[in-house]
Fold:
Amino acid sequence: METPLTGRIRADGEVVTLAEYRRAGGYEGLRRALGMTPAEVQAEVKASKLRGRGGAGFPTGIKWSFVPMGPDAPRPKYVVCNADEMEPGTFKDRLLMEGDPHQLVEGMIIAAHAIEASVGYVFLRWAYRTAERRLRRAIAEAYEAGLLGRDILGRGVDFDLHVHVSAGRYICGEETALLNALEGKRANPRAKPPYPQVSGLFGKPTVVNNVETFVNLPHILARGAQWFDGLSTLSADGGTKLYGVSGRARRPGLWELPIGSTAREILYERAGGMRDGYRLRGFLPGGASTDFLTEAHLDMPLDFDTPMKHGSRLGTGTMILLDDRTCPVGMNANLQRFFAQESCGWCTPCREGLPWVSRLLDAMERGDGRPGDLEKLAHHAHFLGPGHTFCALAPGAAEPLQSGLRLFREDFERHIAERRCPYGGSA
Amino acid sequence: MLTPEEIDDIRHAIATLPHKQAAAIEALAIVQRHRRWIDDQALRDVGEHLEMSVAALEGVATFYNHLFRRPVGRHVVRLCDSVTCWMLGGDALRSGLRATLGVDLGETTPDDRFTLLTIPCLGCCDRAPALMIDDDLHTDLTPGALAGLLRRYD
Ligand SMILES: Cc1cc2nc3c(=O)[nH]c(=O)nc-3n(C[C@H](O)[C@H](O)[C@H](O)COP(=O)(O)O)c2cc1C
Ligand code: SF4
Ligand code: FES
Structure:
């Protein structure tokens, strides 16, 4: 099985240097891209069917196609890497940046050429100190080798790449809030349209992609769209995906597998199954803001389209396990406390609703739940859902809440009837 | 007054941006790196340097979790309070930290050595529970390991 994204990453935790990266074929994708026109690069990426790995799965080539091109397009144009990774339960971009930072640098230069961008930023979360150090070092190496800056590889392409370390807040990961943060402002999301591709950073055409999206580009360019699409025969989507497991598995971790692999394979063959004495009750397939799935969904391909048909989402692909000795109410109380704290406060259902939900769940976990609370929670879950708020933070918060209420209803009811947490929890 | 080093660092930040107000977050972080936190005078000085109103800059400073408008100790402990760490013993770590340091969340020890804070998911959930002390990540923790760990920071 091929693992293009993680194959070079060293087992001893050390970083892949520029020399090592090049020996393993690094920057060959860039060389090929620079021999193509931007339109040809875009066409190759479109043909690969690469979909954004930041959670929403938007086709990358199509996203780029909305950028105005040609001599009359506004300039400078920007390429921005979303490396905020603050979604609870998610730890994939950390590995990619710590292990093989040149792969990200190369991917960003290819994207820059595809949309004729001359400036790039990596928007990096504060906590990733090692990733920051290694990325800055990789960028310096790339400048020295003529891979960044003026006239890259003698092909007449210019691109400067900077790192911005976030001052920290989950909403910064939302792409328009991120642009405000990069402009030095409060990170409230922006109204769309206009979309960033037309009017993004400093009002100029901008493409924002996730780390894992960018690192696919060198391989697509080096080996072709068809090869990439063929990496997975399990799904209509192409390529590999980083899948992770956290919670009470024997061997929690992260693995690169063909996209469309099943939760059963990931949990039982990679993570070694549940720890002794624990049973699986459910899982959030791709981070805190995805709907719970259960054992019944273990054999479903985890690609972009299939989980949607079963009421959830692939999200970030890093699953969080709920075992039979962990309280589903307590787990939701923890999740909703996070969302309430991280709401940017712009719209009412989110600013007012999330603290309300969080308090209700905390009270229920303490044994102070009341009849009627479940209806209140369902009501809030509805108004947090799609169509009532400015950005996807609130709908994301609603996902584990509504599915938790549906799948673990008897647990919620017992908390209220028995006036205590049956699992011995407290909030 | 901003120090020459601070002004130099801020100039570097501005150089990568189309106008200097865009460096607001970076400039505040630079001042904090030199002084541990951002007091009212420092906020005014940064505002003057970037030609921004204090109100606008305060709006920025208070939005972000890692910009401190109150004093912190020599070391900042950030305990992950997100879902996987919660599941795998985060509460016990929190109690252990409270007991060892003798302070609650958001507080600083009387000797000014540690400030205890929480932080959302540190992105190492496969090695939960986790915390950071200053720039260092510590994973797979147990309450028993805390005393030895904290001793390394004075
Ligand atoms: C509250 C919130 C937080 C987000 N956080 C991230 C993040 O940390 N990283 C990320 O790549 N995308 C995040 N996203 C999704 C981005 O808005 C955007 O869709 C993504 O960066 C696009 O990249 P892609 O097309 O390569 O997937 C977040 C969205 C929301 C609503
Ligand atoms: S949904 Fe929440 S986070 Fe998003 S804009 Fe509204 S208040 Fe801000
Ligand atoms: S939940 Fe603590 S590191 Fe992710």
About this structure: The mean pLDDT of chain A is 97.
